# Entry
Amino acid sequence: MMIGGNASAADMLVKTPLYASAWINPILIANTQVGLGIVGHRVDYYETTPTIPRFSSERGWLPGLQLGLSAMGPMGDVANIYVMGAFTWIQGRTEYGASGGPVIADRSGADIRTLDIRLGKGFDVAANWMVTPYLGAGYRSWNRDLSNRSGPFGYSELYEHGYVGGGLLVQWAATDRIVLSASGLVGTTLAPKMATSFNGGALIDPLTYDLGSSAIYMAGLSADYAITREWHANAGVDFLSFRYGASAVALDGSLEPDSRTSNWTLKAGFGYSFYKSPAIAANY
# Structure
């Protein structure tokens, strides 16, 4: 309370106008968008037995599409909450190999579908740097169609697993328009299995093999360019590695052997950022 006299400028209450313009971290804008892209997926899968290190294999590049949705912003009093979901569909034909040697003329159909989800919290380590630890989870299926090389007794194999893990996303806003990202995740596969079904020939009950779980490794590099505040172009490369443990022997005497999988995915597309800056709080 003041008695007499005039109030100085320091004593006056000054508020920043609501929705006043302010610098917004480009990372927040890049991390809040819906996007669609094309992918090129490199498959490198092989099965091993105690006597043959590369008993059966599938190799090749496959085309696909990826739909992604991500958002980053405050949740209550917590800033920079990060959520991401991506669905990828890949379809084509791979080169089949047996006993260590590729058979170029013999191809298998492949239909691969993946779902990846991430939830994390971003930390500003500098004005244009952000580090986001996250939890990741997802699902992968691979329908391996072997009917073309088995004649009337053709069959398919459906491999499936879930996964969970922990990861880290590191991002750098190189300019107001360019955001570069690097990420990595280490986790474990969940409930891997393979189910067979016949596409022709004798009608039999399909068999399902429970496979052994293993560590899973994921890594990625990407770049996002803001054409405008809303429209973005992006590109990147992802790496995935995991294995399946051999199954128990089935009632008919068969089993699914140990296998290794390594995948590279090149991707490019466009996104629309729906980031809306929160109202600027009053400053005193």
